[in-house]
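User: Just a sanity check before I run the rest of the batch. Below are the structure tokens for the first item. I only need the designed sequence back.
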């Protein structure tokens, strides 16, 4: 079964194109080091719920969009190998992302798949 890293974050609408460019670079790096899939999605139908919702989870404001993304790997061990290489890659170093979105409101985690159809 695959291993998945999942991410949820808010990006100011004014920064969306910059985020997309950054994601394309990051995706190429992840894939180069062995990720199976790298997917970034912009919220299209994500209503603000009364109790819980994607926008609430990341404290998204009216001038922000929700980004939902995931990266898949063949296993947790492979993910750990890939992630170590990605984090050391010079193409992803620096603080450029801090001007694009608020990393403090990003939700992320690693998940072991138990159903794959």
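Assistant: Here's the designed sequence for the first item:
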């Amino acid at each position: 079964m695959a291993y998945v890293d999942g991410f949820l974050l808010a990006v100011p609408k004014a920064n969306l194109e910059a985020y997309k460019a950054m994601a394309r670079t990051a995706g190429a790096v992840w894939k180069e080091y062995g990720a199976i899939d790298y997917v970034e999605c912009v919220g299209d139908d994500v209503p603000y719920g009364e109790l819980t919702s994607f926008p609430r989870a990341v404290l998204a404001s009216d001038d922000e969009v929700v980004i939902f993304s995931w990266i898949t790997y063949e296993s947790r061990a492979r993910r750990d190998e890939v992630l170590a290489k990605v984090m050391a890659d010079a193409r992803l170093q620096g603080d450029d992302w801090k001007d694009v979105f608020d990393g403090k409101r990003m939700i992320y985690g690693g998940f072991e798949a138990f159903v794959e159809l």
